[in-house]
Amino acid sequence: MHHPDPDRSGGDAARHAAGMTVRRSVLGSAHVDRAEANTTPFTEPFQDLITRYAWAEIWTRPGLDRQTRRCMVLTALTALGHWEELAMHVRAALRDGTPPEVLQEVFLQAAIYCGVPAANRAFALTQGILSEFGLATTSDPDTGEG
């Protein structure tokens, strides 16, 4: 799916607005509203930076579709052990209609390229989130093992 490019010539305000549109689409308005409500004068420059660059400049590029970008993010977060961010993006993926089977494939691929312990943690974390969404299987969410 191709998403419109932000107005790259329109300056920071246009990129920020375009980024907020994509950020809300990917993460959900509830998450973005919480992040915005928790923004302080100290964190505001960082929030603006990620909104303009991550969400407007990168997530809107035409070279990859949103699903591919999402899978890359999930893999990178697994590789780096950023579990809170991984949980946030898994929830966002499920809310956006990504089937659990796609998440399963991402983490199987991650097991080979990122390591089995990282993938094991990603599977366990995601199994717990699948339970939250009513998509649980008989696996133990604490270990990822059936």
Structure at a glance:
The protein has 146 residues and is mainly α. It contains 7 helices and no strands.
Description:
It contains seven helices and no strands. It is an all-alpha fold. It has two domains: 11-58; 66-132, AhpD-like (Up-down Bundle), CATH 1.20.1290. It is globular. The termini are far apart.
Morphology call: globular
CATH topology of the largest domain: AhpD-like
The number of domains is 2
Strand-residue proportion:
under 5%
How far apart are the first and last residues' alpha carbons, in Å?
Answer: 35 Å
The secondary-structure element order is HHHHHHH
Percent helix, as a range, is 55-70%
CATH superfamily of the largest domain: AhpD-like
- Kindly provide the radius of gyration, computed on alpha-carbon positions and rounded to a whole number of angstroms: 16 Å
SSE-based structural type: mainly alpha
Unreliable runs: 1-8
CATH architecture of the largest domain: Up-down Bundle
Sheet with most strands: none
Pfam families: CMD (PF02627)
EC number: 4.1.1.44
Organism: Lipingzhangella rawalii
Enzyme class: lyase
